[in-house]
Amino acid sequence: MTKIITKHKIWREKLAKRDWKEYMDKYLDDTTAFTAAASSSLPKGMVYDKTGNRLPTPYALFSEWCSSDLSGDWAIMKTKGGFVVCTADSYDARTILGEFRATGAAKMTKASKTTYTIGYTFSQYTTLAGHMGYVL
After folding, report:
1. Per residue in 72-95, pLDDT tens?
2. CB neighbourhood size of 78 (10 A)
3. Looking at residues 115-122, what average pLDDT do you find?
4. Three-state SS sequence of 46-111
5. Which of 20, 23, 33, 129 has its CB 3.0 to 4.6 Å from that of 134, i.e. a possible disulfide?
6. Closest CA to 64 of 72, 76, 52
7. Residue pair 73/87 in contact by the 8 Å Cβ criterion
8. Of 74, 95, 69, 73, residue with least CA distance to 84
9. Spatial CB neighbours of 117, under 8 Å, sequence gap ≥ 6
10. Residues contacting 133, CB < 8 A, separation 6+
11. Contact yes or no for 116/102 (Cβ under 8 A)
């Protein structure tokens, strides 16, 4: 990752989301994982926002947020009943934990030696949707 220090802030070059296998091949020993329970569909009656934009599923919205707010390499994968997202960048790990609080201590999983379960509730979905430009 490239860091450029300017007078007012550190600019961090955005890196693209990686394919899960490619990411794990590169970062398996140096990644932090986050799991969340999330529905694969929206609540009944929620399809479009007030401006007519189609609303993403909770998984798709979280992935969209990662693309917008994470600056290092990351990968996301759907799981039964939710998803897991991994990042090798400690700044991005702190960003995720700052936005979505851990619901317990980190555990060792297949995805990472350090895996946090995060709370990603419907109220957080609506807040995140607003952050991403959807009008609910």
Report:
1. 999 999 999 999 999 999 999 999
2. 15
3. 93
4. CCECCCCCECCCHHHHHHHHHHHHCCCCEEEEEECCEEEEEECCHHHHHHHHHHCCECCCCECCCC
5. 129
6. 76
7. yes
8. 74
9. 34, 35, 36, 102, 103, 104, 107
10. none
11. yes
Residue 69 has φ and ψ, to the nearest 5°, of -110, -15
Q: Which residue type is seen at 66?
A: C
Say what percent of the chain tops pLDDT 70.
88
* Cα distance between residue 48 and residue 31, in whole Å: 35
Q: Which two tokens stand for residue 69?
A: 């707010």
* DSSP designation for 42: P
